[in-house]
Amino acid sequence: METVYWMAGLVVFLTGIALHTWLTKRKVTGQLREKYGKPVCSELVNYYGHQSRKGFEWRGLALLWLTPSEIVLVRLVPRKQIVIPVKSIVNVHSKYHFTGKLSIRPLLCVQYIRDDGKRDVMGCRVWDFDQWARQIRKLRRAWS
């Protein structure tokens, strides 16, 4: 009987996490659509932060939003927004980085120049790397 309670509690907990993620994504999507308009691409991604000496470390779920002029990444918990202008993007490439979990999907690595003139690389795991890379490169050529 105790096993049934454990399983029911686990199901309720996981359902709550999924519902919270869905509602937060919906709220953030509405805010981004109001501020930036319709996206070229958008996706809920695993965000691995910026490249450091250790490589990439998982930072949480984020909403990646590509507009004709900017890449906007909004981390869901804790809320943080990163805006990268398309004209400051230097390179887009894939990287197979072992993050402790077995995954066949590469990281989408966006190399860009920060406001202070230094280069930085942002990594996130997307479902369709080719689509994202193609769209970002196309927008970067349009800004060149």
Q: What this model shows, in words?
A:
This protein is of the alpha+beta class. The chain contains two helices and seven strands. The protein has helices at about 1-35, 130-144, and strands spanning about 40-50, 60-65, 70-75, 80-85, 90-95, 105-115, 120-125. Strand 6 (about 105-115) and strand 7 form a beta hairpin.
Please provide a brief summary of the model.
The chain is an alpha+beta fold and 144 residues long.
Pick out its properties.
144 residues; alpha+beta; 2 helices; 7 strands; globular
Q: Largest sheet, order of strands side by side?
A: 4-3-2-1-7-6-5
- Amount of beta strand: 25-35%
Shape: globular
Number of helices: 2
| Structural class based on helices, strands and sheet pairing | alpha+beta
Task: From the alpha carbons, calculate the radius of gyration and give it in angstroms.
Answer: 17 Å
Largest sheet data: 7 strands, antiparallel
Spans of at least 5 consecutive residues with low confidence: none
DSSP strand tally: 7
Helices and strands, in N-to-C order? HEEEEEEEH
How much helical structure, as a percent, in the residues?
25-40%
Mean pLDDT: 85
Euclidean distance between termini CA atoms: 66 Å
